[in-house]
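Record type: monomer structure entry
Structure origin: computed from sequence
Chain ID: A
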Amino acid sequence: MTGGRALGRRFGWLWAAYAVSAYGTGLGFGAFPLIAVLVLHSGPAEVSALSAAGLAVGAVVAVPLGPWVEFRRKRPVMVAMDLTRFAALMSVPAAFALGLLSFAQLLVVSVVAAAAKIAFNAAGGAYLKTLVPPEDLLVANARFESTTWASTVAGPPLGGLAIGMFGPVATVMADAVSYLLSALCVRTIGGGEPRPTRTGARRLRAGDLLEGWRLILAHRALRRMFCNTILVNGLIMATEPLLAVLLLGHLGFTPWQYGLAFALPCVGGLVGARLARRLVARFGQRTVMRAAGALRAIWPVGLAFVQPGVPGIMLVIAVQFGLVTCCGVFNPVVSTYRLEHTDPGRVARTLAAWSVSGSATIAALTAVWGLLAAITGPRTAIAVAGVLLLATPLLLPRREDTPRERPHDALRDAAVRTGLGTRSGPGSDRSQGAEIVGDR
């Protein structure tokens, strides 16, 4: 999907694992909010609480997983997390068939899925860094990013159609099966993976839990990128359940229209991911990060002006197209930058800390915006989030935070930096970046 550069059979199976689960996630886009609204007849505060509680408790549960994952083989961890999510999600259609589905069960499943995702992403990021050469990290991350947007183009409309034909939990079942297939693909990768060696104390210490955050905060550019990323993602995701309520409940969009309005713009994500490597080669990594990071913040405020009917659908499509195009460029570049500037023996802890912080921020902001929507209405709450997003470019790394680079040397310099880094630290066996590859 992103150029013809061959990255090997083992990367192909890793990419296949990500693709099949990404398409499952695309089919299940917004499934829990839809079930909460259409089956359990929940209001804005409850729908927001569902998203917030699952992420918050899942993040707390996942805090010790970063250090735990660091000193274990990464592929077995990834397989275990996929199987955990398969079992958790399959419990939803089972309970629905028996007439036992409840809001509490959706909360529990959300917690398990959130914690398992963080562990999977931590293991996957470390594994990707050992699987492909340093100079190909951006290519790999761009392919994951392309797959994410391609699955979002096809998944939500098909998911809406499946809900109309087979009921509201059909897409949850499809998402669950995708995790099972992902586990099989990861298992098929093959090849040896030495067990990472641990220096110092054998048992997990309290200080180990904070190591990932210490590493992020000690690096000035990573610190600013970290703050920008978790705040932008938090504000965007906080409005997702409110958009479901506004579009499905207040404005009368059907599920297939809702899915279509968010699927078509994802073509922009494909375009952005394909352009990412070329833009970095021409303008430099730092410039692309700053420009794409600033541009993605200007779009979401437009969602506050959506109206019923065709004009409303067209506005949502236009806003989302601009947003996801910028994200398609920004995400793989940042994921690659993060891997390049993280010691190989600490990748899992760093990615886990990043994911835990992101999940906790999304949970907190989702809860706050749910209360705000209950007081002012979903449209006003969406507008407030959009206005705040306009200020987030101030948190992007400044010129002095990252070394100036000549555009044509950007990819080569990244490879040199990473190549030197892979010689030191525990667990430096070639063990995802795009979080793997991206947060699903």
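Annotation 1: The chain has a mean pLDDT of 80.
Annotation 2: Residues 239 and 382 are 6 Å apart (CA to CA).
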